[in-house]
Amino acid sequence: MSSSTPIDISCANCGKGEENINKLKTCTACLSVKYCSRDCQIVHRPQHKKACKKRAAELYDEKLFKEVEGEDCPICMLPMPLEGVSYKSCCSKRICEGCICAMALRAKGSMPLCPFCRKQSVPPGEEQIRLVEKHMKSGDVLAYKNLALYYANGEHGLSQDYQKANELWQKAGELGCAEAYFNLGQSYHEGKGVESDIKKAKYYWELAAMLGSLQARFNVGAFEGNSGNHHRAFRHYIIAARAGDKDSLDMVKQGYMNGIVKKDEYANTLRAYQHIHNEMKSVERDRARQVFASREKALKLGLLDEILAKAKAGKGLENSKEFDEFILEEFGPNWLNKWGLNKG
Question: Rounded distance, CA 191 to CA 197, Å?
């Protein structure tokens, strides 16, 4: 039955109502029948129950398996990368690190401004909380989601409180935040702030998948696969892979090798995967990856303090091959210090 199934214009129980359609109430579960009163709906329920449940499941699946277009960076207007995105509390925007890096390059040693609102970045602490709470008063979904993260991680002076985080994620999810529903599903899966409940975890992952979360869709696919519902599992993997998720693409490949996924399905998924990743590419994002990868490598090797000391002393960096000279040439030691990239 398709989503265009016609709705009866008379009461499904008594047949009355054609002369006054506006007073009929539609069944909220299946949306396919109408009733003139609550009494008629109760009387008709035993007869309607099976068809209602089937149609409601069909409607749910239509929403669950619908591909959702991802968000764009508000600065460069390219599809948001799957990794390398930062939240700015000053304007409550998610911005790709390519745009953040480009703004930092223009700063040339001074503290970079926010690429979107051009305000100074706010240091960690109470001011971050104040700004986020201010955005929450206007119903900003990202503000709810990020305050939940602060509670979950015990950041910016807040005590770790998963119960409070879950309440905020619930609100953010209701406002349309996919990541919030995904995180709430994780809480139920891991028993953080709530009693562990895999059915509720799956439910919130499904809500997150409907809103575009690829991680949530992968999790739902894994749940379906473990339950023996391989057809449903690979429908999820294909949708997530087409949107750029590498883990899902690997599962689609495995499904093709095992004869579950057809050759043309796998080929089309590969093309869509490559296309979306090509759309996400930019010179600025490549540069940002180089910068942050080099920074992380230096921190991991414990060399950043030594490199900064050499830079300050004017001794050059010829003996520090583990760290790209690009960073200090483009950003300068002052930028590294102000952004807290030294170990101290």
Answer: 7
Distance CA 95, CA 103 (A): 11
Mean pLDDT per 10-residue run, the chain (344 residues)?
57 77 83 89 92 92 94 96 91 92 69 84 84 94 96 93 97 97 97 96 98 97 96 97 97 96 96 97 87 65 60 46 41 44 40
Specify the pLDDT at position 185: 97
Residue 121 structure tokens: 């970045």
* Dihedral angle computed from the Cα positions of residues 55, 56, 62 and 65, in that order, rounded to the nearest 10 degrees: -120
Whether 37 is covered by a domain: the verdict is yes
Let me know if residue 252 belongs to a domain.
no
| Number of C-beta neighbours around residue 338 at 10 A | 17
Domain holding 1, by residue range, is: 1-60
How far apart (Å, rounded) are the C-alpha atoms in residues 292 and 108?
Answer: 17
Contact 36, 23 (CB under 8 A): yes
Q: Residue 72's beta-bridge partner residues?
A: 79
- For residue 38, give the 3-state DSSP assignment: helix
Backbone phi, then psi, for 260, in 5-degree steps?
-90, -40
- Residue 30 tokens read as 């299946």
First to last CA, the chain: 63
- Tell me if 244 sits within 8 A of 263, measured CB to CB: no
The H-or-E segment that residue 322 falls in is: none
Give me the amino acid identity at 114: C
Asked if residue 325 belongs to a domain, the reply is yes
What Rg, from alpha-carbon coordinates, does the chain have?
A: 26
The pTM (predicted TM-score) of the whole model is 0.81
Q: CA–CA distance from 114 to each of 89, 120, 142, 341 (Å)? A: 10, 6, 16, 18
Angle between helices 198-210 and 214-226 (to 10 degrees): 140
261 close to 255: Cβ distance less than 8 angstroms? yes
Domain boundary among 60, 89, 110: 60
